[in-house]
Amino acid sequence: MLKIYKNKWPELFFKISCSRELYMPIEKDGQIWFGKWNEDAKVRFDELNTVKSPKDFFFPQSENIVAFKAKGKNISILEKRDESQPFVVFGIRACDAESLKILDRIFLAEPIDTFYKTRRENATIITLACSEPEETCFCSTFEIDPVNPGGDIATWIIDDVLYWQSLTKKGHTLTEDVKGLFEKADQQDEEKIYSHKKGVKVILSKLPLQDLSLEGFKNGNMLAIFNSPKWRELSQACIGCGTCTFICPTCHCYDIRDYDTGHEIQRFRCWDSCMYSDFTRMSHGNPRHSQIERFRQRFMHKLVYYPANNEGVFACVGCGRCILKCPVSMNIVKVARTWEANKALEVKNDE
Amino acid sequence: MNRTYCDDNMQEVHRRNWTHETLIPKLGIVTDIRIDTPDIKTFRVIGPDGGVCFSYIPGQCAMLSIPGVGEAMFSITSPPTNKDYMEFSIKKCGCLTEWLHQIDVGQQITIRGPYGNGFPVETDLKGKDLLFIAGGIGLAPLRSVIKYALHYRENYGNIDIVYGARSAYDLVYLREIQNEWRIAPNVNVYLTIDREQEGWTGHVGFVPDYVKELNFETDKTAIVCGPPIMIKLTLKALEELGYKKNQIFTTLELKMKCGIGKCGRCNIGTKYVCKDGPVFRCDQLEQLPEEF
Ligand code: SF4
Ligand code: SF4
Ligand code: FES
Question: How many structural domains compose chain A?
Answer without folding.
Answer: 2
